[in-house]
Write a sequence for this structure.
């Protein structure tokens, strides 16, 4: 399968990531961005390699920023070859090789700053987490270039880990507080066919949560665990994974664990893991997910809290958790075709993930709130984790390179193929080539998605091909219609689990038209979500919208949408580089308010124009208020 | 002036405070309440007196709990003589006398636990704060019993403080981080006529906020001041007091400062202080006061935040801040007759202050939130300061004895007299005796207030008296009407600054009827209060109402009051010991919600009965949700 995006929406972002973000982040890793928090990540490697003197600086998991950057750059090389960039990566890989220890260990913090602490702090040390990101990077770089150096280094590292950690009596029976190596080892297994890597991943996942937990004795666990938001459930270590039916703890950790479980379920054909994942999926998406696809309701512990607790202004909704949800959703689609997964993947991609990056690709949100009042947000102690404007870099810089790697690999999330079934999960103009039982199938997809739900898929075949083309019917579409060569299909007859399955002998130049009509729609929350009571969010196709002060003035909470207000969608090329805006009439309180706090109710609302923009685009103009949920009556 | 309350509302609470709360709190101070956090306050005194061994335990300001308890008990002796209680107080005073140091200093923490730290930590040491509370207690006890021992002890203490602190070059030029001694010294001055005490108070107030601030060099200031919510403004030390036009910092500290400023304005005839207070009053009440009269929007720093930031679920609204606001309001009324002050005093007394105590007088709220969802409140890190049920005592137990002292002195807040003008600020059945130019005036007030706004004031005179009787016309009353001997007065002609001034020659058995009709009313917030957008609060007379889960089921945010819904007020003796409830019809979302988080809007609200109870009474039945602000459309 080979997918080449050439659409109006994503491809410019991918190109920008390749042309701007990856070079920018390379500078950031080298501390060359003025005004940004220093990274020191490359310098840490030089110090570890003995080529520079100085002290380690940064988070214990600083290496993972380099790893994710290489992974992103490697993905970009697949579709955007760049010998200069490849040379830079080769040089970093060489530097890493010199920093790798004789036994295969590679970690700048524990080598330079705390050598005596190696394998001591599994709860918060992030050693295996960093190893996992390095492995993912090595696999990606090998796949992009077929160069083995980095991959071999990481196999050495994995071999070393496999020698010292595991269920055997002479090994440490531990796992990492922050999941990541589990899914990385499955990737390493897939590329090397080395079953030991799969088994080690399986060990990590199955050991997790067994009681009594080794973490309780872990030196790193002590201090934070007195804080109840950092207990075992923070690490998804409160129960064996198959007995976890609710999503708990640190949201990114959880997403990486569930992704690894899905990988193992597929690699091992383990239905018990799939069954556990279905329950977790249902729980997350029906109790603890923001409408933007954001996850994590509390800054303290960057974590899930309790069911239906989804505060908009103090949300954590970390960009990395959104990325993790995309990863998990796509892996679920590899286990079973169900639009529940595809719909959420689309929701988070277009909203809670994309909001993490500025339009120009150089500024980031770590936290993606659904409501911001800058003066309050900046003042209040309980909102200090929320930034009201994107910033150029973070001391804890997990999100920017994570965004880069998902954008440069976005093409891999559009399709899956299972024998003679080709499934299309996401919609954007692209040209994609498949091998169906030895025959070449090329799909030419053209669409203005997400600004328009009309999608044309033209087939290019060397000869007739019998296969099923399966298209996700988006749950937001009220009147989906599909034609093949002008003939309308009976969707109720062919739709299974939200996918329209068109099975026939396809001919060259067959044409499929997907009519997924988009319209401005009001969405309401379950009444158990106290924060959203009496409010609606505006959606248009896959996009969640928001109000910004730039368009609607201050005090956005004062705006109310009458029940009968029509919202019109219209493309505006003068706003935010060209977007579909939703516009209509709303109400604001009467202007007679004076310098008083409370008064008997006076009902003299006045009509005002209201303009909503896609949530992912907020914060790209002058700073101001923003809200996703709007009062309604 | 002598006021004897005998009403249905307050008098039982005062009696309960005398009969239950004061004995209960005495036990608490002696660590005899099972399940309550220990106090150790009396034991600290014994250790300080050298009569027990052991370590100091408690907050640095633990002494103030004893002081406030004595003050409360002393007030109670005025109207409820009790030789047994008086004996207990005498014994404590004797114990204190033995604990007092030869130089007059009296503080258990700094004598027992940190003698070398005496006068070292003005920011957070609370030494002068504790001294102030002891002085207030001594004045109250002298006024109640004419016994001088305690008063003399405190004069010795004040003399000592005056010797070591002040503007002279040989003294420490400092003031206390927590205001309190300032107002206490004015009381001490009033009772002793010792001008030095007034001057010392004036020094404390006028020194405050001068820059550069000595606090910046204060050893106690260092650590917390790195936290910006504990900077100079936390202590109201950011500007000289006359230049402070916005209420900043720790809410209780602010209220005690403003009270002291009002005392000094009156004692010194200082109009510059009054003018500063008017600005502060306007700021607090038009920008930063909850509808309950609660103050302090943030738990971290127990403080004011920014204008219009009034979150209901994370509110701090400390009971002591409410009490402080009552104190300040009453002092403003002593400076100028204006119902702005009386209205707020009434608001806070009946709502944000009274909510601090359970109906049975033995359980307390420190924090008085306006919205509680127990599961969320108990889970969330940013709500850990909020208790969902009242508790028997606190490690930091400032509030319970503070409530006791204001309830036992409540009679003193009803009237002020200025020459031949007698002003009635609060309404409750009482019998009050005044001396008007040597003639005795007795007012017999009868009312069911706050359940009913009909107030009868009968005059008992030995001979005709020419004077002005002035009655606050509550701002919540839409149709106030006053008759004298059956004749209706023209209120517009006689009302000044919200007080109906009836000036005439009064005869024995004259009868004044105040008809302050009460009705259920919806109140809305300034649109700049984001938290309350689209919501209303229900008021009835001086009472703010709330919804409780006990009456309305869970998910109170789901309830919406249609714009045309009528609310009926009715007395119900079967609820909460007898209260006026407000009942009407509201809407809840349709019951078709399944296990889903979001869906396109369906408008099928169903009608439900809604019952509201006075906010001050919430949390006296089974634990559950509560909200003051209710959605409206």
């Amino acid at each position: 399968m080979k997918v080449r995006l050439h659409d109006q929406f994503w491809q410019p972002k991918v190109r920008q990531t390749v042309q701007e973000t990856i070079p920018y982040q390379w500078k950031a890793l080298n501390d060359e961005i003025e005004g940004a928090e220093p990274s020191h990540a490359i310098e840490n490697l030089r110090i570890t390699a003995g080529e520079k003197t100085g002290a380690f600086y940064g988070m214990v998991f600083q290496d993972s920023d380099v790893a994710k950057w290489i992974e992103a750059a490697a993905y970009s090389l697949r579709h955007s070859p760049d010998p200069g960039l490849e040379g830079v990566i080769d040089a970093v890989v060489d530097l890493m090789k010199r920093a790798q220890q004789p036994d295969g260990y590679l970690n700048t913090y524990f080598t330079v700053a705390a050598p005596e602490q190696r394998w001591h702090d599994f709860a918060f040390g992030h050693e295996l987490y960093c190893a996992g990101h390095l492995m993912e990077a090595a696999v990606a770089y090998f796949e992009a270039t077929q160069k083995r150096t980095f991959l071999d280094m990481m196999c050495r590292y994995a071999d070393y880990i496999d020698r010292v950690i595991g269920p055997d009596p002479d090994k440490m029976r531990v796992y990492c507080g922050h999941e990541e190596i589990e899914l990385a080892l499955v990737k390493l297994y897939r590329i090397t066919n080395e079953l030991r890597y799969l088994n080690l991943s399986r060990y990590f996942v199955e050991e997790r949560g067994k009681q009594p937990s080794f973490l309780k004795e872990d030196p790193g666990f002590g201090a934070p665990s007195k804080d109840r938001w950092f207990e075992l459930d923070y690490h998804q270590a409160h129960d064996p994974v198959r007995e976890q039916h609710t999503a708990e703890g640190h949201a990114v950790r959880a997403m990486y664990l569930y992704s690894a479980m899905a990988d193992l379920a597929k690699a091992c054909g383990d239905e018990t893991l799939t069954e556990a994942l279905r329950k977790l999926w249902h729980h997350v998406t029906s109790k603890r997910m923001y409408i933007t696809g954001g996850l994590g309701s509390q800054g303290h512990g960057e974590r899930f809290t309790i069911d239906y607790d989804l505060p908009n202004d103090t949300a954590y909704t970390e960009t990395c958790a959104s990325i993790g949800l995309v990863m998990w959703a796509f892996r679920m689609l590899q286990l079973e075709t169900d639009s529940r997964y595809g719909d959420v993947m689309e929701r988070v991609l277009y909203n809670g993930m994309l909001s993490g990056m500025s339009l120009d690709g150089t500024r980031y949100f770590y936290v993606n709130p659904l409501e911001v009042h800058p003066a309050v947000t900046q003042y209040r102690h309980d909102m200090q984790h929320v930034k009201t404007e994107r910033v150029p870099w973070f001391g804890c810089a997990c999100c920017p390179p994570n965004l880069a790697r998902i954008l440069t690999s976005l093409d891999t999330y559009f399709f899956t193929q299972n024998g003679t079934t080709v499934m299309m999960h996401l919609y954007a103009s692209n040209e994609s080539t498949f091998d169906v039982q030895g025959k070449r199938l090329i799909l030419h997809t053209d669409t203005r998605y997400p600004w328009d739900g009309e999608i044309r898929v033209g087939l290019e075949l060397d000869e007739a091909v019998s296969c099923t083309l399966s298209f996700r019917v988006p749950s937001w579409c009220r009147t989906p219609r599909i034609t093949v060569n002008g003939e309308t299909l009976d969707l109720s007859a062919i739709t299974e689990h939200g996918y329209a399955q068109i099975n026939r002998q396809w001919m060259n130049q067959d044409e499929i038209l997907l009519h997924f009509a988009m319209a401005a729609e009001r969405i309401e929350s379950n009444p158990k979500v106290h924060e959203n009571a009496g409010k609606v969010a505006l959606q248009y196709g896959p996009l969640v919208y928001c109000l910004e002060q730039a368009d609607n003035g201050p005090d956005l909470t004062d705006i109310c949408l009458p029940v009968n207000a029509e919202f019109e969608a219209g493309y505006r090329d003068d706003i935010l580089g060209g977007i579909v805006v939703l516009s209509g009439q709303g109400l604001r309180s009467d202007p007679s308010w004076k310098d008083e706090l409370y008064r008997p109710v006076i009902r003299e609302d006045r009509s005002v124009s209201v303009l909503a923009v896609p949530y992912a685009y907020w914060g790209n103009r002058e700073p101001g208020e923003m809200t996703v949920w709007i009062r309604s009556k």
In short: The domain at 415-515 of chain B is CATH 2.60.40 (Immunoglobulin-like).
